[in-house]
């Protein structure tokens, strides 16, 4: 357990901070808490108040080599050799420990990332669901017996673990993005090397504490905390002992990872940027649509890849929707995520804060109507707080319509016809998630089939679920996480052809 042996949460300067313990200034490689080879560290800050949370090792390629070798040895000799049932037992224990320590993990997450602690606890439960799901799938990685056309042959297909997997994960879901990748990898028999986001390393390190207690062999789970993201990423992508890379982040970086993996022809999964359309048709239940838009837009202060980015509302209900949505947005409480009254925490850092303010200024200059919010800050001056902002009468030339916002700005666009809405929705080069609200059954089928996204929410603003495949199309990447399909990215199919079989000599019978 994460108890007094592991860490304490204490009050310092009116802010919840992590007390020092093993993972507070060390990283986790080959089952051991270690410093970086150079001894270099970097600091982690609380985005709600700018205070230092602590420091962690600033790993380089020497540390990465050590982690990869440990993962390779564990794959060869310890983890892939276990039966599916043996892996399942350890994974189930890992799941139970995560849930048992949910509140502690949520406080860590909120301290370094900023999202409200209740929302953080929800993320922990969501992430654990992938460990539970794939613990069960570990026992069901089936092969096949194939029909043959030659009498003295038999043909089979085996599904075997791909090997060492490298993960590069984002700061917006610092726990669940790791667990969503780790679940199928560990179930298949793979070992992992994780490079967590530099803003949020502690959520990853806390999971290592629980993984060790669950009984994963040393070397199965390894972490590289570092500010050298490009250097470490390149090293992982080009290393011959890494068989698979999985990345969640921007399309720009995803393209670079794809190119670097080409040198060793690695298997890769990419969950990249989005620009989700959220379409509300005249036939929609407006209150239901507003509720869905609020959930989709402002979760994690708008910092999710599947957030409603462009809210398209048909002209017949546009004014009603704007009024109802604005009322709900104004009621949101912005503040420190440790305060249980908070609905929206800060954005992650200064760069993100300034980027969002630039988006708002661009919309103003181009004639948009700021119905509520704007660049008003709330809370301590040092925190990166932005009020929920509703921008009405948005033009397609504005940044809020063209680019992924990743912040608490709702960009409202008026449209007249279904064809116009579909054209706007599909006009971008990414296709992760899309949403629409309608009570017209024929329209529901038409729009669902025409939207160019990997996932579609129909009269629903929250669509992520362990039972469903998560992933996009176009420049939002490829590969699927979760569901019965999720294991496929972590196994190789091996075809066995057994020839020269002799039939029974029936003439002598």
Number of strands: 24
Strand content: 15-25%
Q: Please report the first level of CATH classification, the CATH class of the largest domain.
A: Alpha Beta
Which geometry do the CA atoms define? globular
In angstroms, what is the radius of gyration?
A: 24 Å
Specify the CATH architecture of the largest domain.
3-Layer(aba) Sandwich
From the 3D structure, determine the CATH topology of the largest domain.
Aldehyde Dehydrogenase, Chain A, domain 1
Portion in helices: 25-40%
Spatial strand order of the main sheet = 16-17-18-15-14-20-21
Kindly report how far apart the N and C termini lie.
68 Å
Looking at this structure, what is the CATH superfamily of the largest domain?
A: Aldehyde Dehydrogenase, Chain A, domain 1
In short:
One of its GO terms (biological process) is gamma-aminobutyric acid catabolic process. With 509 residues, this protein is of the alpha/beta class.
Features:
14 helices; seven-stranded mixed β-sheet; Aldehyde Dehydrogenase, Chain A, domain 2; 509 residues; 24 strands; succinate-semialdehyde dehydrogenase (NAD+) activity; Succinate-semialdehyde dehydrogenase; single chain; Aldehyde Dehydrogenase, Chain A, domain 1; disordered N terminus; alpha/beta; six-stranded mixed β-sheet
Overview of this protein structure:
The protein has 509 residues and is of the alpha/beta class. It folds into two domains: 16-272 and 476-494, Aldehyde Dehydrogenase, Chain A, domain 1 (3-Layer(aba) Sandwich), CATH 3.40.605.10; 276-458, 3-Layer(aba) Sandwich (Aldehyde Dehydrogenase, Chain A, domain 2), CATH 3.40.309. Helix content is 35%, strand content 22%. The chain is built from 14 helices and 24 strands. It has helices spanning 61-79, 84-100, 102-113, 117-137, 176-188, 202-214, 229-238, 251-261, 286-298, 318-330, 350-365, 399-402, 418-425, 441-450, and strands at 9-12, 15-18, 27-29, 32-34, 41-45, 52-57, 144-146, 154-161, 164-168, 191-195, 221-223, 242-248, 267-271, 276-280, 308-314, 369-372, 389-392, 409-415, 430-431, 433-437, 455-458, 473-474, 477-478, 491-498. A hairpin with a 2-residue loop joins strand 1 (9-12) and strand 2. The protein starts with 8 loop residues before the first strand and ends in an 11-residue tail after the last strand. The relative contact order is 0.13.
């Amino acid at each position: 357990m994460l108890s007094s042996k592991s860490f304490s949460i204490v009050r310092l300067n009116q802010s919840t901070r992590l007390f020092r313990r093993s993972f507070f200034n060390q990283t986790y490689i080959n089952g051991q808490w270690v410093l970086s080879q150079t001894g270099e560290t970097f600091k982690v800050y609380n985005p709600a108040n700018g205070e230092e949370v602590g420091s962690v090792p600033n790993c380089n390629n020497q540390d990465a080599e050590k982690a990869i070798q440990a993962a390779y040895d564990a794959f060869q000799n310890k983890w892939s050799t276990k039966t599916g049932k043996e892996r399942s037992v350890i994974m189930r224990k890992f799941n139970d420990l995560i849930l048992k320590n949910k509140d502690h993990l949520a406080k860590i997450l909120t301290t370094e990332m900023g999202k409200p602690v209740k929302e953080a606890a929800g993320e922990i439960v969501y992430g654990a669901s992938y460990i539970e799901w794939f613990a069960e799938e570990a026992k069901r990685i089936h092969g096949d017996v194939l029909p043959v056309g030659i009498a003295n042959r038999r043909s089979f297909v085996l599904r075997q673990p791909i090997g060492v997997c490298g993960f590069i994960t984002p700061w917006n879901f610092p726990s669940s993005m790791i667990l969503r990748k780790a679940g199928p990898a560990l179930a298949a028999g793979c070992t992992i090397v994780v490079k967590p986001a530099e803003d949020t390393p502690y959520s990853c390190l806390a999971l290592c504490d629980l993984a060790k207690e669950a009984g994963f062999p040393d070397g199965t789970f390894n972490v590289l905390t570092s500010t050298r993201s490009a250097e470490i990423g390149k090293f992982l992508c080009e290393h011959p002992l890494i068989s698979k890379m999985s990345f969640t982040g921007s399309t720009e970086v995803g393209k670079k990872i794809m190119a670097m993996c080409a040198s060793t022809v690695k298997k890769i999964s990419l969950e990249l940027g989005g620009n989700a359309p959220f379409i509300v048709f005249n036939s929609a239940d407006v209150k239901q649509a507003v509720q869905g838009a609020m959930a989709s837009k402002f979760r994690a202060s708008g910092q999710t890849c599947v957030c409603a980015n462009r809210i398209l509302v048909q002209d017949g209900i546009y004014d009603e929707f704007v009024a109802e949505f604005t009322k709900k947005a104004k009621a949101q409480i912005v503040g420190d995520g440790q305060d249980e009254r908070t609905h929206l925490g800060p954005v992650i850092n200064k760069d993100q804060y300034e980027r969002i303010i630039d988006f708002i200024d661009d919309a103003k200059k181009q004639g948009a109507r700021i119905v509520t919010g704007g660049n008003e800050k709330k809370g301590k001056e040092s925190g990166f707080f932005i009020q929920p902002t509703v921008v009405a009468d948005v033009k397609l030339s504005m940044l809020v319509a063209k680019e992924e916002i990743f912040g608490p700005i709702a960009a409202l666009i008026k449209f007249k016809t279904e064809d116009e809405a579909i054209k706007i929705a599909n006009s971008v080069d990414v296709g992760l998630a899309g949403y629409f609200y309608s009570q017209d059954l024929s329209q529901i089928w038409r729009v669902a089939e025409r939207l160019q996204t990997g996932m579609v929410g129909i009269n629903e603003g929250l669509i992520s679920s362990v039972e469903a495949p998560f992933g996009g199309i176009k420049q939002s990447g490829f590969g699927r996480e979760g569901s019965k399909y999720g294991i496929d990215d972590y196994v190789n199919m091996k075809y066995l052809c057994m020839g020269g079989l002799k039939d029974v000599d029936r003439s002598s019978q």
